[in-house]
C-alpha cells in the first residue's frame, strides 16, 4: 500500500494549529475548536476518504501547487490507529471542557499537541508504536502487508 507522507505531515500540522489556536483563544471558542478537531480526526479514522485535513491538503494545497505529494510504500493502518487515538483524547478533552474540567481538558489536548509535534519534527509516531505493540501481542490482527 502507499501512504502520502506529506499528507500525514499536513494532518499533524493542522491538528497542532487547531489545538494551539483553541488554547490561545480559550473560552467557548476553544471548546468548539477542540470538538471540531476531534470530530475531524475521528471521522477520518472511521472513513479515510472523509478525512477533513487530508481533503484540505489534497484539494487546496496540492491542487494549487503549494505542497507536493510524497507517496511511499507503507501500511496506513498504524497511522489511522494513531489518528483515532489522538481523536479520542481530543473528544475526551472536549467533554472535559464542556464539564468545566479545564485542567484535564488541556492536559489531554497538550498530550496530542506534543505527540503530533514529535511525529511532525522527529518522525516518531507513538500511536503507530502502540499499534505495532498491540499487533505483536495479538490484541490487534495483522494489517495489510507492505509491498
How does this model look, in words?
By secondary structure, the chain is mainly alpha-helical. It has one domain. 73% of the residues lie in helices and 4% in strands. It has helices at 5-25, 27-46, 52-62, 76-99, 102-122, 126-136, and strands at residues 2-4, 71-73. It has a two-stranded antiparallel sheet. Helix 1 (5-25) packs antiparallel against helix 5 (102-122). The protein is globular. The model has no long low-confidence stretch (mean pLDDT 94).
Mean pLDDT across the residues is 94
Helix content: over 70%
State the domain count: 1
Rg, alpha carbons = 15 Å
Query: For the terminal residues, how far apart are their CA atoms?
Result: 6 Å
- The assigned structural class equals mainly alpha
Main sheet summary: 2 strands, antiparallel
Number of strands: 2
Reading the helices and strands in chain order gives EHHHEHHH
What strand line-up does the widest sheet have? 1-2
Strand coverage percent? under 5%
Amino acid at each position: 500500500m502507499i501512504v502520502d507522507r506529506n499528507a500525514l505531515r499536513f494532518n499533524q500540522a493542522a491538528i497542532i494549529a487547531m489545538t494551539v489556536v483553541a488554547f490561545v483563544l480559550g473560552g467557548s471558542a476553544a471548546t468548539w475548536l477542540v470538538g471540531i478537531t476531534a470530530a475531524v480526526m475521528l471521522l477520518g479514522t472511521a472513513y479515510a476518504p472523509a478525512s477533513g485535513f487530508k481533503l484540505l491538503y489534497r484539494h487546496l494545497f496540492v491542487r494549487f501547487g503549494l505542497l507536493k505529494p510524497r507517496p511511499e510504500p507503507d501500511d496506513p493502518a498504524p497511522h489511522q490507529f494513531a489518528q483515532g487515538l489522538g481523536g479520542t483524547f481530543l473528544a475526551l478533552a472536549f467533554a472535559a471542557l464542556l464539564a468545566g474540567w479545564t485542567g484535564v481538558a488541556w492536559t489531554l489536548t497538550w498530550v496530542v499537541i506534543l505527540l503530533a509535534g514529535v511525529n511532525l519534527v522527529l518522525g516518531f509516531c507513538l500511536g503507530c508504536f502502540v499499534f505495532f505493540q498491540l499487533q505483536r501481542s495479538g490484541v490487534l490482527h495483522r494489517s495489510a502487508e507492505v509491498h
